[in-house]
User: Fold Precorrin-3B C17-methyltransferase from Devosia subaequoris.
Amino acid sequence: MSGKLVIIGTGPGNPDQTTPQARDAIAAGEQFFGYGPYLDRLSLRPDQRRMPSDNREEISRARAALDAASKGASVCVVSGGDPGVFAMAAAICEAIETGPETWRRLELVVLPGVTAMLAVAARAGAPLGHDFCAISLSDNLKPWELIERRLRAVSEAGLVIALYNPISGARPWQLATAFKILRESLPVTTPVIFGRAVGRPDEDFVVVPLGEADQQRADMATCVIIGSAETRIIDRPGMDPLVYSPRGAGL
Amino acid sequence: MSGKLVIIGTGPGNPDQTTPQARDAIAAGEQFFGYGPYLDRLSLRPDQRRMPSDNREEISRARAALDAASKGASVCVVSGGDPGVFAMAAAICEAIETGPETWRRLELVVLPGVTAMLAVAARAGAPLGHDFCAISLSDNLKPWELIERRLRAVSEAGLVIALYNPISGARPWQLATAFKILRESLPVTTPVIFGRAVGRPDEDFVVVPLGEADQQRADMATCVIIGSAETRIIDRPGMDPLVYSPRGAGL
Assistant:
């Protein structure tokens, strides 16, 4: 029995942003592991088996998927966005490293996707137009002190910042604290973009200055992009402004 | 006359990684502006007009595209990867900000794509599995001192680093200097990934320890990913090793 495990990124949510490569892999899969709402977005056939799990059960989901593949199944593990950005690819690797030897012999394929910050940036203009970083604001797996240190380092170095996992019921104050830290080194006029479900019917998208950025605008699925001191806004008559970061920068 | 300008990311190069949204926009376009090799990858019809230009002419290309759109054409500006990551979206915004008022009234759409670091990361495993950044090593538009400062800040803060534009004929020493700076704060065993044309027939992909990273392995189109101190390698019998960054981290 030799199974196969494919880790798939379906993109930001609009089906037109899922790559043909990911669609073909979904069509060929037998068993599907992932967060329930992500699996709901796939149009699976009756012969394809759904194995939904909660968002916080990444390692047990990874082990279950590897176990199914090692028994000979063609298994898909599904992430929204890109599976390598704060998603299932790292969890699968962790499970392989600490799991039975047979899991290292499985055929493993990771298919990239359009991650949330790219979709939010495209909606806004070009806020990631120069050097940038992506930081998860979840302190479930790393100490909050480390997140604070990273926020200070990257904002002082002039990088645009994309925040993933900005807030949740169990992490209610972290985003407000992050904004407070960023106000120490960035102008209050720095554009902050809140983007959620961009390109989907329930899209939520707003640009506010850092001085007025309120964590109430975000939920678990929001990607928050904070500009650098160079990030600019172009007003346009009758249209949303464009937010962009010039390609160049000074010292 | 009201034209339209669509800025399109075609993904890493494998046509199966171009989103249906980008394909549809290409099918609907009349005039195509972009770096010649990117335009060559599109299967344009005889009635669709190619306007290729050199890689270093981004602002003049942006202005020509905006001018054509303002005259009523349906214009596509084409980038490889994602247009918002060290590509044409920021150049178009710069041109709009400094250009005639009419350019602000144009319908402008940015369509995201799979950027190089996501494709290279997927090929390797999950090296971007925790906090990471993307830095262009080109000092054409920013001083080298700023790049050095950013490399120090992000490596000391524990971020994984994706380097874009690592080397070119006119910038022959920058990548070797970057490796030298990173060796000051990262272990010599830190995995470094060189990925070029991933998923295409001419793919070039290799993983080496930072202590042996040689800039000769890269060219202009290579994306170089340097792990953090936590990034790990899983050996697999008869297959490439997996490179991944665990989701958690300590202080």
Q: What stands out?
A: Chain B touches chain A through 79 residues (CB under 8 Å). Residues 58-70 of chain B form the longest helix (13 residues). The helical segments of chain B are 20-28, 36-40, 58-70, 88-98, 116-124, 144-156, 174-185.
